[in-house]
Design a protein that fits this description.
There is one protein chain. The protein is of the alpha+beta class. It has two domains: 9-149 and 415-466, no CATH class; 152-376, Transposase Inhibitor Protein From Tn5, Chain A, domain 1. It has 17 helices and 19 strands. It has helices at residues 36-45, 47-52, 68-80, 89-92, 96-102, 125-128, 130-133, 151-164, 229-243, 260-268, 281-286, 288-301, 352-360, 364-376, 387-411, 422-430, 454-466, and strands at residues 9-15, 18-23, 29-30, 55-57, 147-149, 172-179, 182-183, 192-194, 199-202, 205-209, 212-217, 248-253, 272-277, 305-313, 323-332, 335-336, 339-343, 434-438, 443-447. Strands 6, 10, 11, 12, 13, 14, 15, 16 and 17 form a nine-stranded mixed sheet that branches. It has a three-stranded antiparallel sheet with strand order 3-18-19, with no helix packed on it. A three-stranded antiparallel sheet has the order 7-9-8, with no helix packed on it. It is globular, with a radius of gyration of 26 Å.
Length: 472
């Protein structure tokens, strides 16, 4: 947002006899003044600081005007505030509020070393794209792109934030796995046509624990939905158990993750599983009697009828052992709708109906989190030609989600937006008009007097002020 004023005026239709005139002469006004809450939260919990530590900076220190932390913060705050593209930052670099969020000592940019950069406190798109375009073999001798991201450190970062969100270890946790489509519309590396989604796309793998994102792995779409799951689970579970050795872990997924490799790994590593099981003629025959009961009940009541059956089952070739299966014999107005789940949980621990309706069906909430990240934080902006660059874009979106999710959990409890999606939080809490005045001693932000959600703003501010930093 440019700080220089324009002398041009704009005349609009009058209101009764009152003339309406507008001009861009209000001074340093930002439409994102509420974003200062995110900066306050970050100062307490250091999420972006820890993420920035995953980068190695090979640039000459004497020639640097924007540190890695500043670049990372600018990119993530931009996503959180609704700016999805790097191109947006050529305009945002004029915004003193964004410069304040990033931590620039001179938010007006008047102290920049080159005349052409004066008035632009922040980095432009050409500098920011080095975060995603630096190749793995970069070093201090590289010519342009010298900011390398260590993906293994990033993997540990996501799990460490999850661990730090808990003051005491939980007794048990559920890890949800799912794959989704990420449509692509150009000639990106790794481009394949997916028959189920009927489009060219990537097939990223997500792992969540409740609202907490633990893994977002970009993959080509010419693979099985479960590909790579064991490797991701192995590293995540090991890191969790380093801090919580006694926690009981269960994984949950749809039938795309019902694979012998995954179930065998769980059984060998003391991890439980609840997985959807694709129906077949053998399974339908086993619950044939229950399907008849459900159909009879439906015709009597005209309401959906469900009958559950608990039994042991083994495939003819693919499974290494017999396992517990829950069959749901359901009959609806459109006809029979049988469904199946395989689990390592014993019948004495949880009955069939409870396991299906309470435990398995709850996995659908993870799909909302994936949609939230894709639609609200632009996880599908994978338009770079290189797959590694697109993976890094997905990582930045994921970090923005983690920042917003932690903020929601720790700062918005008890408010009317405690369970709101990121775009609603952005609209109601961060998109506030604010006049910024900078003097030698302080920065004063005057928020719009007509802002309707000051109560939520105050509650979030008080929560940040009271909260202790997340545990190490």
């Amino acid at each position: 947002m440019k700080t220089e004023c324009s002398s041009k005026t704009y005349k609009f239709q009058s209101l009764n006899r009152k003339e309406i005139v507008g001009a861009f002469n209000g001074g340093m006004i930002s439409s994102d003044a509420g974003g200062i809450q995110l900066r306050e939260f970050e100062k307490s919990h250091s999420i972006l600081k820890r993420f920035a530590e995953c980068f190695t900076d090979y640039r000459d220190e004497e020639l640097i005007e924007h540190t890695v932390l500043e670049l990372v913060s600018q990119r993530v705050y931009g996503l959180a505030l609704g700016y999805e593209d790097l191109n947006d930052h050529d305009d945002l670099r004029h915004d003193p509020l964004m410069a304040i969020l990033v931590g620039k000592e001179d938010p007006t940019g008047q102290d920049r070393s080159r005349d052409r950069d004066k008035g632009k406190a922040l980095a432009g798109k050409s500098t920011l794209n080095r975060l995603e375009l630096t190749p793995p073999d970069a070093n201090s001798e590289s010519r342009y792109k010298k900011i390398y991201l260590d993906l293994e450190k990033v993997d540990r970062f996501f799990v460490s934030v999850f661990l730090r969100m808990h003051t005491t270890p939980p007794e048990k946790i559920i890890l949800d796995l799912d794959a989704t489509d990420d449509p692509i519309h150009g000639e990106q590396e790794g481009r394949f046509f997916h028959g189920y989604y009927m489009e060219y796309c990537y097939l990223p793998l997500y792992i969540f624990c409740g609202d907490h994102l633990l893994c977002a792995r970009l993959r080509q779409s010419n693979i099985d939905a479960s590909a790579g799951s064991v490797e991701e689970l192995d590293r995540i579970v090991k890191q969790i158990r380093e801090s919580w050795p006694d926690v009981r872990i269960t994984i949950r997924g749809d039938s795309g993750f019902c694979r012998e490799e995954i179930m065998s790994w769980c059984e060998s590593n003391g991890v439980d599983f609840i997985l959807g099981l694709a129906k077949n003629s053998r399974l339908e025959e086993i619950i044939g009697k229950e399907l008849e009961e459900a159909e009879k009940a439906f015709h009597e009541t005209k309401n959906a009828a469900r009958v559950y059956k608990d039994f042991m089952y083994r495939t003819r070739e693919s499974w290494s052992r017999e396992r517990r299966v829950i069959g749901k014999a359901e009959y609806l107005s459109k006809g029979a709708n049988p469904r199946f789940v395989v689990t390592s949980l014993a019948p004495e621990e949880v009955d069939a109906k409870t396991l299906y309706e309470r435990d398995y069906c709850a996995r659908g909430e993870m799909e909302n989190r994936i949609k939230e990240q894709q639609m609200c934080l632009f996880a599908d902006r994978t338009s770079s030609t290189k797959m590694l660059a697109n993976q890094i874009r997905l990582i930045f979106s994921s970090v923005a989600y983690v920042l917003m999710s932690c903020f929601r959990l720790l700062c918005l409890g008890g408010t009317e937006i405690a369970r709101a999606q990121c775009d609603t939080i952005r609209l109601k809490l961060f998109k506030i008009g604010g006049l910024i005045r900078i003097s030698m001693r302080r920065i004063l932000i005057s928020f719009a007097s007509g802002y309707p959600y000051e109560g939520i703003f105050a509650a979030a501010y008080d929560s940040i002020s009271r909260a202790s930093p997340m545990t190490a």
